Each structure stands twice: as structure tokens, then as C-alpha cells.
Amino acid sequence: MSNHPVQTVSTSNDKYKVILAVVAAVAGVAAFYILAGQATWIRAAALVLGLVIAAGFVATSEMGRDFVDFAKESVRETKKVVWPTRKEAGQITAVVFGFVLVMALFLWGTDQLIGFLLYDVILGWKK
């Protein structure tokens, strides 16, 4: 017996809600530019209204609810993280800088050795 996950197909109503959300967002942006001669707060209100309507359509769709659930779960997981203290962060940073310095010296030395072997010993070219 196979153990494949089953993915549900969204209904056409959800597709229409997403399409309406895109139309509302585009209408809000278009209204912002069409009302160029009006007061700034009127233009901003038109933009915000279009975006709020779009968010309302998306929030009522299955995709929007899934996104809200994902966002809530992300916040919940972030609260579980144990963040390092200032001292621990400084120590970790010092270790990283030390490793980078040692690695840079190693790579520089390897480059110099390969260059010496290739150009001076094998090819006989003197710099």
C-alpha cells in the first residue's frame, strides 16, 4: 500500500476569490495614480481600501486561511527559540572571525605554494 500524501484541489470559489483579490489590489493601485490631482489622503485611502478588500477576499479563501495558520505556527515556533546572551553571541562571533582568519591564511599559503610549484619548479618561469 502506498503512503503518498493527498493534496486537495481548491474549489473554483477559492480561485475566484483570489482573482477578485488581485483585481481589488490592482484597482487600489490604479485609483492611487488616477486620483493624482486629489489630496494625498484621498489617494492613500483609495490605495488602502483596495488592499484591505483584497486582503478580505484572500483571508476568506482556503489559501488565505492556510497562510494565516502558517503565520501563527511560525510565530509560535519563534517563541520556542532559545536566543544566545550577549556574551555568548560575542564568543560565537569571535570564533567565526578566528576561523575565517585561519582559513584565509591557509588558502593564501596553499595558493602561494601551488604558484611556486607550478611556475618556478614545473614550468621554470621566474617571476
Any low-confidence stretches, pLDDT <50, length ≥5? Answer: none
Helix content: over 70%
**Total count of strands:** 0
Rounded Rg: 29 Å
The largest sheet, given as strand count, sense and whether it forms a barrel, is: none
Please describe what this structure looks like.
By secondary structure, this protein is mainly alpha-helical. 78% of the residues lie in helices and 0% in strands. The chain is built from 4 helices and no strands. The protein has helices at 12-34, 40-59, 62-80, 86-122. Helix 1 packs antiparallel against helix 2. The longest helix has 37 residues, at 86-122. The chain crosses the membrane at residues 18-35, 41-60, 89-109. Essential subunit of the Sec protein translocation channel SecYEG. Clamps together the 2 halves of SecY. May contact the channel plug during translocation. It is found in: Membrane. It holds the Pfam family SecE. Keywords: Cell membrane, Membrane, Protein transport, Translocation, Transmembrane, Transmembrane helix, Transport.
Task: Give keywords.
mainly alpha; 127 residues; elongated
Task: Give the structure's gist in a few sentences.
Helices cover 78% and strands 0% of the residues. It has 127 residues and is mostly helical.
Topology:
Blueprint: H1 12-34, H2 40-59, H3 62-80, H4 86-122
Helix pairs in contact: 1-2
